[in-house]
């Protein structure tokens, strides 16, 4: 069986059969991606550490003040 045939067969499995297959792959520690548990990271090109970004971030009051300031600066206000 080649890869394309295998994929066709896997796509035809029921949800229960797919869960069983995923369980078998996980139990045997074969490399699979569990989409529900996957974490996507948008890394900064500057490689700034989280703590530094946290220190530079606005607190809720500062954010509210900036938002009000921006709204008040709109031409139709």
Structural class: mainly alpha
Shape: elongated
Tell me the distance between the termini: 68 Å
Number of helical stretches of at least 4 residues: 4
The parts where pLDDT drops under 50 for at least 5 residues are none
Helices and strands, in N-to-C order?
Answer: HHHH
Number of domains: 1
Helix share, percent = 55-70%
- The overall average pLDDT, rounded, is 78
Give the amount of beta strand, in percent: under 5%
Number of strands: 0
Reported for the largest beta sheet, the result is: none
Radius of gyration, Cα only, in angstroms?
A: 24 Å
Q: How would you characterize this protein structure?
A:
This protein is an all-alpha fold and 77 residues long. It has one domain. The protein is 56% helix and 0% strand. It is built from four helices and no strands. The protein starts with a helix and ends with a helix. The mean pLDDT is 78.
């Amino acid at each position: 069986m080649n890869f394309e045939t295998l994929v066709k067969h896997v796509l035809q499995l029921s949800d229960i059969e797919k869960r069983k297959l995923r369980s078998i792959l996980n139990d045997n520690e074969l490399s699979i991606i569990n989409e529900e548990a996957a974490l996507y990271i948008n890394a900064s090109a500057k490689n700034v550490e989280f703590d530094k970004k946290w220190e530079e971030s606005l607190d809720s009051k500062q954010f509210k003040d900036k938002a009000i300031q921006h709204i008040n600066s709109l031409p139709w206000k």
